[in-house]
What does this fold into?
Amino acid sequence: MTARILDGNALAQRLQIELAEKAAQFTAQFGHPPKLSAVLASDDPASAQYVRMKRRDCKKVGIISETFEMDASSTQEQVEETIASLNDDPRVHGILVQLPLPPQIDEERALQLVALPKDVDGFHPINIGKLAMKGREPSFAPATPSGCMELLKEAGVNLSGANAVVLGRSNIVGLPMAMMLVKANATVTICHSRTQDLTAQLRRADVVIAAIGRPNFVQADWLNEKAVVIDVGTNRIDDPSDKRGYRWVGDVDFEAAVKVVRAISKVPGGVGPMTRTMLLVNTIRAAWRQAENA
Ligand code: NAP
It folds into this structure.
């Protein structure tokens, strides 16, 4: 048996057509497009590349974007002043603080400053808190787990009562993912580096979300034939046969797992494009809400 491949590129493209229509409607109605502002306060080339990709995505659907490139030696006060000025600018609908911030910046304090209606990354502690609480909804949910939820919807998974195993407990992926799955009525097990007998947890899982950053770590014989697997891991490995000398792989041994499980997302081309698209979804939602409440 070969698993169904969950194609994040195709799903993202479909969603982006709808987003472009919503952005065009917004621009026609309010006379200016939705706008996303990114704060980049690091000299990490990967962070700069992520911000450039996000800006390209914005352009595709008709969101205008700008980047505040700050020196990696910026002070807490300078970063906070930039966030405060974006909070006050009525033309800015979404604020993205690119993580990680340099070590001298208190990330928690900086994220807490982002105005809730503009917190399109969903990392404000109030939004994360609401995500964890029964009967409360955050203004925005983080993009990567939201993208995983869309892929699960696309796979036609009935999450109610399903055994879901989340591998990883980071603030940006594993934890919010687990909270979203609980809200969708799944029975959730969170596994991490101290988990004992990980394979036993995985073998009984109907849904597996792998977000640990370990190339090809999850083996096919740890998974069952009913499992739907979403691979968040994005790991660069050396590959002399590739002209770049490297390639990207996930946390799951895809080549073996695809022969065993019911459905699986690819790396690249699975969660990555969906993460980027969910940021656009949040930005357009933010713009409409702010304009309607003005
Ligand atoms: P992270 O902050 O490093 O967290 C990794 C998590 O995995 C931690 O909770 C850690 O456990 C757990 N872990 C590490 N080794 C493990 C092992 N051998 N067994 C079980 N658990 C283990 O990473 P992250 O930011 O969540 O990212 C995870 C992966 O997703 C990375 O490859 C990253 O590049 C990728 N990612 C992709 C996207 C996308 O859009 N495609 C977005 C974000 C991240 P402890 O808590 O016990 O240390």
Notes: The mean pLDDT is 97. The CA atoms of residues 163 and 195 lie 17 Å apart. The pocket of NAP is lined by residues 144, 167-170, 172-174, 191-195, 211-214, 232-235, 271-272, 275 (CB under 6 Å). DSSP finds ten helices and eleven strands in the chain.
